[in-house]
Amino acid sequence: MKEVNPNDTTRAYAFEMWMNAPMPMVTFFKTLNVTRLLKVSRRHGFKFNMLMCWCIGRAASQVKEFYILPANGKLIEYDSIAVNTIVANSLGEVSSCDVPFSDDLAIFNSNYIRLTRQVAESCENHDLSDSMVIGTSALAQYDIDGAVGMYSGIFNNPFLIWGRYRKRLIKTTLTVSFQFHHTQMDGAHAARFLDLLQHEIDRILTPHKKEAIGKL
């Protein structure tokens, strides 16, 4: 990672307007069709949350704004991204786990299982300071309509929250909230990311994608 001059990026105007704003965060809500994700989870024995995190990483990796993060009054550019998940640990509390994103689902799944188990057992967070981290929080036991993340003024990372998915007659839906710093991206970038997220969910492990994903 490295610091970049805002004036050398497409975020120069946004940096000037929003970097020191008292509330620079924006939150979007979107209801996703996760029918295919649930089907793949059950058929292949993958954790539903892991598949969501992988699709989030896939979608984010296609939006260049995800590789630049405002922090401490600066713009920091990253070469890689990671997806954070909250883990229930052995003490009955929660810990934080950053999972490096890999375009290969098999590799991402392996890292996800290994790192979340490590964090759960040790009760110690696993942080990746050299990657732009996308936060997630899955309240899978609860039926919620949405949530707005807290802006601490310290962490400006994009963040997604979701609750329990809802099964209907022919499809399963999941409502997610997506919070982002306006310096990092505009509404159009965020909306494109959410559209890409739905696209990645719809095409996960479809026949034409299996070879690109690797051996599962």
Largest sheet: 7 strands, mixed
Secondary structure: number of strands: 10
Structural class: alpha+beta
Shape designation: globular
In terms of DSSP E residues, the strand content is 25-35%
How far apart are the first and last residues' alpha carbons, in Å? 31 Å
Topology pattern, helix = H, strand = E: EHEHHEEEEHEEEEHH
What is the tally of helical segments?
A: 6
Computed CA radius of gyration, to the nearest angstrom: 17 Å
Secondary structure: helix percent: 25-40%
Q: Could you list the spans in which at least 5 consecutive residues all have pLDDT below 50?
A: 211-216
Report the average pLDDT across residues. 93
Structural write-up:
With about 220 residues, the chain is an alpha+beta fold. The chain has helices at about 10-20, 35-45, 50-60, 105-120, 185-205, 210-215; strands at about 1-5, 25-35, 70, 75, 80-90, 95-100, 130-140, 160, 165, 170-180. Strands 2, 5, 6, 7, 8, 9 and 10 form a 7-stranded mixed β-sheet that branches. The chain has a 3-stranded antiparallel β-sheet with strand order 1-4-3, with no helix packed on it. Strand 9 and strand 10 (about 170-180) form a beta hairpin. Helix 3 crosses helix 5. It is globular and about 50 Å long.
